[in-house]
What does this fold into?
Amino acid sequence: MEELTLTTPAVLFSAISLIMLAYTNRFLAYAVTIRDLHSKYLKKKDQVLMAQIQNIKQRLYLTRSMQIFGISSLLLCVLTMFLIYIKQQTFAIWVFGTALILLIISLGLLIKEIQISVKALEHHISDIENN
It folds into this structure.
């Protein structure tokens, strides 16, 4: 096995940072949507709004999990760099592998969240097509 160097985990910094920026933008968009749904629900309490609220709630929690796994991955990349620096190569390899797994989980959750988002938009499209 080839030795793990400081540059290997450092390469993930920019990728994880961009992913985290995308996740944060999703989170902020949900915050705006939730505030809008809240004001609509206070005016008119109907089942369609409740379904939208449940959908956005599920997506919000998925986004939170995506962020947690992404941040944990970044944290473990930093720890990997420290372990390489103090010459703990074997432990660094295991920590870096764990960081990669956390990043994979985060991206997997993103796929699930996108599928839920598309279903929500399909409901809106069907409403338009039916009217």
The chain has a mean pLDDT of 89. The radius of gyration is 20 Å.
